[in-house]
Design a protein that fits this description.
The complex is a heterodimer. By secondary structure, chain A is mainly alpha-helical. Chain A contains 6 helices and 4 strands. The mean pLDDT of chain A is 84.
């Protein structure tokens, strides 16, 4: 009778092989699920890529138009825009809450005679500093929530250039993109 | 002293029959005041007297009428002729005169003794380098021997061969000999007032240090320069040296050409006293290697194998000089960029990847095979499979370079591939946006000065280079990922299933993106808006033939509004098949046939099977083996399904990238075409061109130079190009693979059996009448449901696919345009069917099985079998 080939599954005397294989499979599956979820939930990278594409394409169009003695007027495809009012309101609550919590935690640590930081002024300072910074951000967000989209130049500059504004999606359709550009004849051509 | 057999070349006039072509031309140069070293000529009277007195006439008659010596006897024949002239007695009178004449030159400098035959320096045959020249002669005795040798060279075997080949009569031939003072030259060389191998708008200069005889004899490699005739701007070629007299030399050459009224081949020397012209003769019109060569073909030779497959969709048919000179450098560069990006060692610049034979574009299969084989995991066979649809039978991998390294090299190569492919879809998006933006500019070209027009075109071209690179990179990525999908599904279900599933899985996702389908969809929108509910418009489209415009205009506002929409839409389509080539609005036949197809086809368009991935997943999941593996490996999420989805997405993504890049290239090609016609209109207005359509026979560089104000290309050269182009077109397609100069396809053994086997490109079975199409224009005869039989198709053929019932082509691979569009439209298609066009006749009843790759000719089939099929 021919000798039977060893089978890693049946002959696994230590009962390790199968659980190990299944465990690895489960871990990898889990990681893939998390990766998919993150990819779905964080669209900022995709918008930024679209912005880069639109800005690059605009650069090409400008160079062609300039060669023919023209200029191009059109939107800045790398800009940011207002978030929703709710987002600012939520931001106010979040930042103010965390700031208050930081201040409170600092005070409690300062007064906790059993704690490591009892009477340590650094903890109060750290709590107060954090609360101040977060409070300022919350105030700024509150300001945005109140003046929402009104013509305050300073507010617009902050919205368009910092994370207070969200990345603006450029036109997805090439025809729409082309339509957003305007040909201007250069003076003294 | 008065000479009987000789005269000075002092510009007082000489007759070519007395002094030969070279001396006559030198005399004219002297007369025109050009700087020529002092010279005299021993006339043809001396030669005739010598031959007569020495009794050489019977010997020369024998040479004239006898057989030419075979190749291995050339040297012996030459020695025999030379010996006859060296041994023959010379009259004392003649000898004294020669010695006396030479004596006048030798005390001051060495001399050059040059042949000057009566049949020499003609426009049609220059005899360049055929006759003898002796330099550095220092004694009268040496000079006398040199004169005899010059006379003998009139009858050397190679000159006799040349004369017979060129049909030049030998009855009244004679040889004069030029005696010329030799100046000490720091540089010497030749100048062509029009580059015989390149652009006719460039001056070509070759220079060597010292005397120029080393250059003429080919013993040294010269320093090469090209000088633009219009601006005298200098470009170095190959070796280069800084020569500050080049501009003066170019001006001198142009002045000589202007006096001679023909392009000139000038030997020159730079001496202490300045530039000297040693001789000038007309440039022989460069003869093509074959009648089909318009001067732009790749020079045949070498051992590389070429194939028209794969590239014939990018540059279909006979490619005009204009389109070749625009597209070929971009395509060549695109391949080289791709090779660099994926780590293939550089292909030497002496080997072209893209070639042109008989006017048709080809790819260097040898280079592609070597490139693929040098990659870890790559093979030459895969290249053949991709371009030819099947591997060739010879053992080609044995001499191909083998990749170095093992697993690490493979991982590194995979990483390079991944990095190169990662940005492709973003690049395609950017290209699409940029092309739309550029086309949308709608600049009024008529108002642009020439300089600005050329700059505008150059920026458009920059974008086109970028798109070509993206298209080639996408094609390569698509081919690799498609093949990986085939192989992977083949591992699960078997090889044949793998091939079929790969087709189905990638078909539906391309429905809106391929070059042809995008156009069809836009025209369909217009049709639905204007025609679908207007019977009068429908009738005009169906009955209006290839040009129904007049009938539609007669319908009033509705018709005019429809035509406006069509014109507007078609303008945006750009070029039909080749960048900067014919545009859709130049020839609306294809558009009308597409619109009339909508009107004639009552059944709704066939939708591709979009749920094939779910079907495949269902089949796989039902397998117990599949389920067991999933459980045993603990896959909460089925990773093989995830891998399959990812492979399908990747293959589809790259195919889409390729199609979108191609579509963008063609749209941009429309913008460049507008510039070309603007240039042509200006050249017609300035008298450089008689017809704007002639623009196709100029190279890109020639056109640009003419727009800048340079002189036009000679009309005889234009005519030669036109004739060669037409001959190449009539000669038909190239063989599948060839080496050297391609032979015409031999159709002696046409297939006669009932079944022709090809490559199954798009699944499904259809029975219908064959329609053999040699060109797109013939497509207007195509009736709904007929089966297209053709050599190959390109994107401009897409409208016909809407009418056809099936496709049979002699060329094409799995990723060819025909295969992709056929799958999108759900048309059964068989590609790579050898000799289909020759073997099948229009009207023949065919059964096309796109699943098995069989084309059955019903009339030749067994009657019982026919019934079964029916």
């Amino acid at each position: 009778m021919a000798e039977r080939r060893p089978d890693p599954v049946r002959d696994d005397g230590l009962h390790v092989f199968v659980p190990a294989l299944m465990g690895v499979g489960m871990i990898v599956s889990g990681l893939l699920v998390i990766a998919d979820w993150l990819n779905h939930m964080l669209p900022n990278g995709r918008v930024r890529r679209k912005q880069e594409i639109a800005a690059g394409a605009k650069g090409v169009v400008i160079s062609v138009a300039e060669a023919a003695g023209h200029e191009i007027a059109g939107p800045d495809f790398r800009s940011r825009e207002w978030r929703s009012r709710w987002a600012y309101a939520l931001g106010v609550a979040g930042f103010a809450g965390v700031g208050a919590a930081a201040l409170l935690a600092g005070l409690l640590a300062f007064n906790d005679d059993a704690g490591l930081f009892y009477r340590n002024p650094w903890m109060v300072g750290l709590g107060a500093g954090t609360a101040a910074v977060l409070g300022l951000v919350a105030l700024q967000l509150l300001f945005f929530a109140i003046v929402y989209r009104r013509s305050f130049r300073a507010a617009h500059v902050l919205i368009e250039t910092t994370w207070f504004g969200r990345l603006k999606s450029p036109p997805r359709d090439p025809s729409e993109f082309a339509g957003s550009l305007r040909l201007i004849e250069r003076e003294g051509k | 002293m008065d000479y009987q057999f000789s005269q000075y070349l002092d510009g007082h006039g000489s007759v070519a029959t007395d002094v030969g072509g070279k001396a006559s031309s030198l005399d004219r140069l002297v007369a025109d005041g050009f700087p020529v070293p002092r010279a005299a000529v021993i006339t043809t009277r001396a030669y005739r007297a010598f031959v007569h007195e020495a009794g050489l006439e019977p010997f020369l008659k024998e040479l004239q009428h006898g057989e030419l010596p075979p190749a291995d006897q050339i040297a012996a024949d030459r020695s025999r002729v030379e010996a006859a002239f060296l041994r023959a007695p010379m009259s004392a009178e003649l000898e004294d005169e020669i010695l006396s004449l030479v004596g006048e030159f030798i005390p001051t400098s060495p001399i050059a003794v040059r042949s000057s035959a009566t049949a020499e320096d003609m426009v049609s045959a220059s005899f360049a380098g055929q006759y003898e020249t002796f330099l550095g002669i220092k004694t009268p005795e040496e000079a006398l021997t040199a004169v005899r040798r010059c006379w003998a060279s009139l009858w050397s075997p190679q000159v006799r061969v040349y004369r017979r080949r060129e049909n030049i009569g030998e009855d009244d031939l004679a040889m004069a000999v030029v005696i010329q003072a030799m100046a000490e030259a720091s540089w010497a060389g030749v100048l062509f007032t029009r580059d015989p191998q390149g652009s006719a708008l460039d001056i070509k200069v070759e220079a060597v240090p010292g005397l120029g005889d080393d250059l003429v004899s080919g013993r040294v490699t010269p320093h090469g320069f090209l000088i633009a005739r219009s601006t005298l701007s200098i470009r170095a070629r190959g070796q280069r040296a800084k020569l500050d007299f080049l501009e003066d030399l170019a001006r001198l050459g142009l002045r000589i050409e202007s006096r001679a009224r023909a392009p000139q081949d000038i030997e020159w020397a730079m001496t202490r006293d300045g530039l000297r012209v040693l001789q000038a003769r007309p440039i022989t019109v460069s003869r093509p290697l074959s009648l089909h060569d318009d001067g732009f073909d790749t020079r045949a030779g070498g051992t590389d194998e070429y194939t028209p497959r794969g590239v014939s969709e990018m540059l279909p048919g006979v490619v005009s000089p204009l389109l070749w000179s625009i597209n070929a450098p971009m395509l060549e560069d695109a391949f080289r960029s791709l090779f660099a990006a994926i780590g293939i060692s550089e292909v030497g610049t002496d080997r072209r990847i893209v070639g042109r034979f008989r006017g048709r574009a080809t790819l260097n299969l040898s280079v592609l095979r070597e490139a693929a084989a040098s990659l870890p995991g790559g093979s030459g066979e895969e290249v053949e499979r991709q371009y030819l649809g099947h591997p060739l039978e010879h053992d080609h991998d044995h001499h191909l370079p083998k990749p170095q390294g093992g697993v690490i090299a493979r991982v590194a190569a995979a990483f390079r591939n991944w990095r190169a492919n990662r940005m492709l879809s973003d690049e395609v998006e950017l290209i699409k946006h940029a092309v739309h933006g550029v086309v949308h500019l709608d600049i009024d070209l008529r108002r642009l000065p020439a300089q600005r027009l050329l700059r505008y075109r150059s920026r458009i071209r920059d974008l086109a280079w970028r798109i070509y690179a993206t298209e080639v990179a996408s094609s390569s990525a698509a081919a690799a990922s498609y093949r990986a999908l085939e192989v992977q599904v083949g591992r699960w279900l078997g090889d044949e299933e793998g091939v079929q599933w790969a087709q189905r899985l990638t078909a539906g996702a391309l429905a809106d993106t391929s070059v042809g389908a995008g156009r069809v969809n836009r025209l369909r929108d217009i049709y639905e808006r204007h025609v679908a509910n207007t019977p009068a418009l429908q009738a005009s489209l169906v009955q209006g033939g290839p040009q129904p415009r007049d009938r539609i205009e007669a319908l009033g506002d509705r018709g005019i509004s429809f035509l406006d929409d069509v014109d507007h839409c078609v303008r945006a389509f750009g070029a039909q098949a080749v960048y900067a080539g014919r545009t859709w609005n130049e020839d609306l036949v294809g558009v009308w046939s597409q619109l009339s197809a909508f009107a004639r086809t009552t059944e709704p368009p066939r939708e591709p099977d979009e749920d094939s991935l779910s079907e495949l997943i269902g089949i796989l999941k039902r397998s117990p083996r599949w389920r067991f593996k999933r459980i045993i490996t603990g896959q909460l999420l089925d990773m093989r399904i995830r891998m399959l989805r990812s492979m399908v997405e990747e293959a589809t993504l790259f195919l889409r990238c390729r199609e979108e890049a191609k579509a963008s290239l063609l749209v941009l090609g429309g913008a460049e075409r507008r510039v070309i016609f603007e240039m042509a209109d200006r050249l017609v207005a300035s008298g450089h061109l008689s017809l704007s359509s002639d623009v196709e026979f100029f190279s890109d560089g020639e056109l640009e130079q003419m727009v800048r104000g340079a002189e036009p290309v000679f009309s005889q050269e234009l005519e030669r190009r036109r004739r060669a182009f037409n001959r190449a077109r009539d000669a038909g397609p190239l063989p599948e693979v060839f080496q050297g100069d391609p032979e015409a396809i031999d159709h002696a053994d046409l297939p006669t059996g009932p079944v022709m086997q090809g490559w199954a490109a798009s699944p499904g079975v259809v029975r219908g009448r064959a329609r053999v199409l040699e060109s797109l224009e013939a497509g207007t005869e195509l009736e709904p449901g007929e089966i297209i039989v053709a050599h190959s198709t390109d994107p401009s053929w897409t409208p016909l696919f809407l009418v056809a019932g099936g496709i049979v082509l002699e060329e094409g691979g799995p990723l060819s345009h025909a295969a992709i569009v056929a799958r999108e439209f759900g048309l059964p298609a068989v590609l790579n069917v050898a000799d289909a066009v020759q073997a099948i006749g229009t009207g023949e009843d065919l059964i096309v099985d796109g699943t098995t790759g069989e084309v059955r000719r019903v009339a030749l089939a067994d009657p019982g079998e026919e019934e079964d099929d029916g």
